[in-house]
Input
Amino acid sequence: MIKKLRGYLIARYDNMCNSYTCKRLEEEAKSLNIEMNTIGVCDTIICENKILHKAHQLNKVDFLINRHKHGHIKDRLNSLAKKSYNNLSSFNTYLDKFSQLENISSLHFLKPKYFLASADKSFEEVSKILSDPFVIKGLDGSEGDQVYLIKSEEDLKKIRTFYGIDKEFLFEEFIESSFGRDIRMYAIKGKIKAAMLRKSNMDFRANFALGAQLSPYDINPKMEKISEDIYKITGLDFVGIDLLFGRDNFYFCEVNVMAGIKGIEKATGTNIAREILLSIKEDFNE
Output
């Protein structure tokens, strides 16, 4: 008799009723006879080296899915699982956009020119390195948050006023040929399960959360090679990969270690949540 798989889905709160991704993972776990409980980081405490959830000590489980970014509690919860998705070291490393650009490479895409610096840099100083306009990104934002197209010194002043001069940003070359459009791929262990085109007529960012239109995108051999290369480098089992359109080649944009699945499921009809849980089951059936 095969032992029933038990796992935790780590999120901000126990009740993530407004999170499409959490709900879909819970639904598919139930349909596959996997016992998976959502554990909220904000509903958990660590006391005297014990991990307590609603006053009860949590038991060890087979697997854990990370869907919360930061904190000691999230990290400690990972110690309860035989296997984490994504594994904690890769998850924490590749949350950071600077680490992504420093470490991820492939013969099948280009990377924008970039540098890391605090927000006190002048428009003239940055333009000499990247030309203008240019893009700045917070290091761990998602859904288009903390991503700005900078066209003037006045734009930079607004950033300094809002965030302070000490905040570190990734300063990047603006890929004009990809204005308002990009490709999002969802890959499991280096294999692309679905891809979509994201397109915005109102913003240089093409995030679904910001209202971009979505449509399926045909997967080609170059995209498959990119996905394989990223998996070999990062070890990220489940990952969203974003590519920009250059004139003659793709440009790497970023990877998302806890990518939402609402847009890509709806755009492509692919049951990503089920693919994730089936992949986990396969790991424990070997």
The longest helix spans residues 221-234. The chain has nine helices and 16 strands. Residues 73 and 278 are 27 Å apart (CA to CA).
